[in-house]
Write a structure and sequence with these properties.
Blueprint lengths: L2 E5 L10 H9 L3 E5 L7 E3 L5 E3 L2 H7 L2 H16 L3 H8 L2 H4 L1 H22 L15 E6 L1 H12 L3 E7 L15 E6 L10 H4 L8 E6 L10 H4 L3 H4 L6 H20 L16 E6 L1
Parallel strand pairs: 1-2, 1-5, 5-6, 6-7, 7-8
Antiparallel strand pairs: 3-4, 8-9
Helix pairs in contact: 1-11, 3-4, 6-7
């Protein structure tokens, strides 16, 4: 079975995405679900030790100076009169903001997991079940950006998906050589779209920009199933189960095509779900 690695959002946790992941597993994938220690809500280790979110580190690094840098760049971005001015406003923060440092660290977490899959005797239970060639990586929000960063840096990764994450890190100065998809929720008009510049160099392989209309940032998490109040759950107007169905279809079609070499037309999903808009570049 092919292996996928999933990375959660910042101050979230690996256990907050079962509606998305269980369906993917049921279709014949092994999903290794990372919990990023100190930047998730909490992690429990095999010996029972618990490591919670490191608020001290966050307060020291994600400080007033960082907030001012992002504020000023965002203001310049929103006041720009051309795409060139937009790019000039944010090109530095895409690589220098504290989130970019975190993305690079999470990307190394992903590569470390691949190292363990290949070399750790404790992972031997997977050795007779997993497809040896081609690993896929995907994630939500901060974890989605980490998936994109990992695809840039680790040649063992064959394809990746960023689900609704701003692509901090090295992407803005890079060109991808592997297949990639950026799936986004329906961002409101006031939301600055940094990603159109982060992905400015696109890819030498297949590159998809996909929007799911009527969705919000949490529609890719389990939150809408637990908190049914749009004022606080950050979900869109779409029915939660439909949002999962669409996202699952996109993720499965993408990895079926690029890990299993199935003859799938990703753009054809627009005919099945009117909420989906796919832009494909090769």
């Amino acid at each position: 079975m092919p292996v996928l690695i999933f990375s959660h959002g910042h101050y979230s946790k690996a256990f907050g995405y079962y509606a998305l992941l269980e369906e993917i597993v049921s279709q014949g994938y092994i999903v290794v679900n990372i919990n990023h220690t100190y930047e998730s809500t909490g992690a429990i280790f095999p010996n029972g030790e618990i490591k919670l979110y490191d608020s001290t580190y966050d307060s020291l690094t994600n400080n007033a100076e960082q907030a001012e840098i992002v504020w000023n760049a965002t203001q310049q971005f929103q006041q720009a009169e051309s795409e060139k001015e937009e790019y000039e406003a944010i090109k530095d923060i895409l690589t220098d903001y504290i989130a970019a440092t975190s993305i690079q660290r999470w990307s190394k977490d992903i590569s470390s997991v691949i190292d363990h899959l290949e070399n750790d005797v404790h992972m031997s239970f997977l050795s007779t079940h997993r497809k040896k060639s081609g690993i896929g990586v995907f994630g939500h929000s901060h974890g989605g950006a980490a998936a994109g960063q990992a695809l840039l840096k680790d040649q063992r990764i064959q394809a990746a998906i960023n689900i609704d994450g701003t692509q901090w890190g090295d992407m803005v100065n890079s060109t991808l050589d592997q297949h990639f998809a950026s799936i986004s929720s329906a961002w409101p008009d006031g939301h600055p779209n940094f990603n159109k510049h982060a992905f400015r160099n696109k890819s030498n392989a297949d590159f998809y920009t996909i929007e799911i209309q009527q969705t919000g940032h949490s529609n890719f998490m389990d939150i809408p199933l637990m908190v049914n109040f749009s004022g606080i759950n950050q979900a869109g107007s779409i029915a939660p189960l439909k949002a999962y169905k669409i996202t699952n279809s996109l993720v499965l079609n993408f990895f079926d095509k690029y890990l299993l070499n199935k003859p799938i037309n990703i753009s054809a999903i627009e005919n099945k779900f009117k909420e989906v808009n796919v832009q494909h570049e090769l």
